[in-house]
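PROTEIN DESIGN WORKSHEET
SECTION A - STRUCTURE
LENGTH: 353
TOKENS:
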């Protein structure tokens, strides 16, 4: 979906790296996150200032190979060192399907997946993952367990104005962001964490050191250039040297796609979609309804396995059981290329019982 925009931007985001450049492991030994490129740190702080979606003052910025690596770094850093058993990791269902598999993949002695946060009642320490807006259903989320022994990880991959109204700058202890969903550059593998507590930040940095001895400098420099373009285009308001503002473009595409999808769903009478309350976005200065990166589609009537039903109509989607809920739901990406998205809507609108 974002390719069109970056084609318009053209050479402004081209990066040239010569064979002799950026060869060292180190980026800035004066920074606690010694493998973070200063240019990237600057553009991360700037884009949050421009968009107003997160507080960066008084935070340590930690770069990761995608926010996926930072998610594991956060679990490592937040787990009690000498607990009698692995700490429970919970998230309200439906939750991002990678959380359980990433948490349990190494059968860690430090942390263990414990399922839906809403039914979690065990005493003692726990880690709650709060994804807002949520993957897969797009809802704005808050923590649900709310006990003093808990620590929170806020995964804010989708807290950007093309998906949801930016109501205030997020101001949590540990927040995760990624270029994958903000600018569309998932293949760059760059994410960042904003961390208040210095000891937690130190442990996360240690994890990345043990895991990959830092993060690709080539990717960090490319990410800095892309984020700079996002901020430059936003600051110019209308157009930026003939190019539209990044968020105006992406908001418009998402709005158009949601309109087409809702029309198709309404005409089929077999499916339903969540409804979202409108809210004011301080960045776009308008009131709008969330238009999530995923459609959380429910098969109504007596269709119990929505994933298989759709597969029978040549539509690939991920079933609800991967997200800890009923197979009557599926998650469909709204971010594919125009051709695929249009084909999806067309196929959906022709399904009749
Ligand atoms: N968190 C959420 C909620 C996501 O949806 C995704 C991507 N699907 C990620 C994290 C992973 O992002 P990254 O590509 O930065 O590893």
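SECTION B - SEQUENCE
RESIDUE ASSIGNMENT:
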């Amino acid at each position: 979906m974002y390719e069109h925009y970056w084609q318009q931007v053209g050479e402004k985001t081209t990066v040239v790296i010569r064979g002799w450049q950026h060869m060292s492991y180190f980026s800035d030994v004066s920074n606690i996150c010694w493998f973070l490129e200063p240019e990237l740190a600057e553009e991360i702080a700037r884009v949050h200032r421009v968009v107003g979606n997160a507080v960066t003052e008084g935070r340590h910025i930690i770069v990761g190979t995608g926010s996926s690596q930072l998610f594991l770094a956060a679990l490592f850093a937040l787990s009690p060192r000498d607990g009698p058993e692995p700490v429970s990791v919970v998230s309200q269902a439906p939750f991002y399907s990678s959380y359980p598999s990433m948490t349990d993949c190494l059968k860690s002695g430090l942390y263990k997946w414990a399922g839906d946060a809403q039914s979690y009642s065990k005493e003692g320490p726990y880690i709650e993952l709060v994804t807002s807006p949520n993957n897969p259903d797009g809802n704005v989320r808050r923590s649900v367990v709310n006990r003093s022994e808990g620590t929170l990880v806020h995964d804010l991959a989708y807290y950007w104005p093309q998906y949801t109204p930016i109501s205030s700058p997020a101001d949590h202890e540990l927040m995760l962001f990624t270029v994958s969903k903000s600018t569309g550059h998932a293949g760059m593998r760059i994410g960042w964490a904003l961390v208040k507590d210095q000891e937690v930040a130190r442990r996360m940095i240690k994890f990345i050191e043990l895991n990959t001895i830092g993060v690709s400098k080539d990717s960090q420099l490319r990410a800095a250039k892309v984020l700079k373009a996002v901020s430059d285009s936003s600051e110019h308001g209308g157009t930026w040297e003939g190019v539209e503002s990044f968020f105006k473009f992406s908001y418009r595409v998402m709005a158009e796609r949601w309109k087409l999808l809702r029309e198709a769903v309404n005409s089929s009478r077999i499916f339903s979609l969540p409804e979202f309350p409108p809210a004011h976005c301080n960045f776009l200065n308008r009131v709008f309804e969330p238009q999530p990166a995923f459609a959380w589609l429910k098969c109504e009537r007596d269709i119990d396995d929505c994933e298989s039903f759709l597969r029978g109509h040549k539509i690939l989607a991920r079933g609800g059981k991967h997200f800890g809920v009923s197979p009557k739901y599926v998650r469909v990406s709204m971010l594919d290329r125009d051709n695929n998205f249009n084909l999806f809507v067309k196929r959906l609108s022709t399904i009749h019982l």
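SECTION C - NOTES
Residues 66-68, 96, 131, 135, 155, 157, 178, 180, 186, 191 surround 4'-deoxy-4'-aminopyridoxal-5'-phosphate (CB under 6 Å).
The CA atoms of residues 298 and 329 lie 4 Å apart.
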